[in-house]
Design a protein that fits this description.
This protein is α+β, with helices and mostly antiparallel strands and 325 residues long. The protein has 2 domains: 191 residues, no CATH class; 108 residues, no CATH class.
Length: 325
């Protein structure tokens, strides 16, 4: 049993990065200001403390009139004024050097008087053609996938949801708890993104790691012990911690960027993607638990304990790293 716990912790420590939110895409935005001038913004995440070498591709007939560069947290932001002699419809936009990088990027194009266009750039497809006319469905689909990917590869949020599933027994209590978590982080995601509430990122990240440690600790309490608040009212605890995690989602979305003119749609679909990813995590965890119970019925408690130790070990490492950063 102890060996299984140690192996689980070692595997999770190996698979999860030191930070729980390191997988961040870049963001490339083209906004048409006048018929011949575009404001181009390239927000590139710092990977390992280094700036990516990817650079915006300029179509033929476009030149840079002005440029500036600044650092915003773990992101390099480059802003250009680009003058073009012809329409961008049918022309290709993208990033040179993305094929040698380790991150994807989101492309957003906003022509004057037309629906915005959005696409995901990858190392395999680093440029796309601009359509003659975009659609809001493109923006919605892009941000839905972005939200889904964030919860699956934002390891701190993923481990918190898994810990909730391990802590709570019974479908009804689990549904109520996950719903409370969803409502809470939706509130802070929306209010923070819209600029109504702001919090410094470092204490939020520290508290998110601490929330995972605390839930893992509750899983380890003996079943015969007096039930703490986390077991008596898990929905209340999930709501409180959900408010914290919402600030984390908002920080990730701020780094990615929101399309001008489509902020409500992008915010809604990003949040919907997060919820779909969350449901996928819950369903997968429950399926694994059910499979274990079919194999050996008495494995449920040992499996929960092993999972709690592994999750707690990873979260403790994040807590120390974020506190000392």
């Amino acid at each position: 049993m102890r060996l299984a716990v140690a192996l689980c912790a070692l595997i999770l420590l190996t698979l999860c990065p030191a930070r729980g939110d390191d997988l961040r895409p870049g963001y490339l935005e083209w906004i048409e200001r006048t018929p011949d001038a575009w404001q181009v913004t390239w927000k590139a995440p710092l990977l390992g403390g280094l700036a990516t070498r990817s650079r915006p591709i300029l179509p033929a007939g476009c030149i840079v009139a002005s440029a500036r560069r600044r650092f915003v947290g773990p992101t390099v932001v480059e802003t250009f004024t680009v003058r073009c002699t012809a329409s961008l419809a049918g022309r290709k936009l993208g990033l040179a050097g993305l094929e040698t990088g380790f991150t994807d990027a989101l492309l957003h194009v906003a022509p004057i008087g037309q629906p915005a266009q959005a696409a995901r750039l990858t190392p395999q497809q680093s440029e796309v053609a601009v359509a003659a006319r975009g659609s809001r469905a493109e923006v919605a689909w892009t941000y839905l996938r972005l939200g889904f990917g964030h919860i699956l590869f934002g390891f701190d949020h993923l481990l918190f949801v898994v810990a909730l599933v391990l802590l709570i027994g019974g479908w009804r209590r689990l549904v109520a708890t996950v719903t409370a978590f969803t409502v809470a982080h939706s509130i802070t995601l929306a209010t923070t993104t819209l600029g109504l509430v702001t919090l410094a990122r470092k204490p939020v990240e520290i508290c998110i790691a601490l929330s995972i440690v605390l839930v893992a600790r509750e899983i380890l309490r003996p079943p015969h012990a007096a039930p703490p608040l986390a077991r008596r009212a898990p929905a209340l605890i999930a709501f409180a911690f959900g408010l914290l995690h919402g600030f984390g989602f908002a920080a990730a979305l701020a780094e990615i960027g929101l399309p001008a003119g489509e902020i409500p749609l992008a915010l809604f679909t990003f949040n919907a993607g997060v919820e779909l990813g969350q449901l996928a995590i819950v369903a997968t965890t429950l399926a694994l638990i059910a499979a274990l119970e079919r194999l050996v019925s008495q494995w449920r408690r040992p499996a929960a304990v092993a999972g709690a130790y592994a999750i707690g070990a990873v979260a403790t490492a994040w807590l120390i790293e974020r506190t000392l950063a």
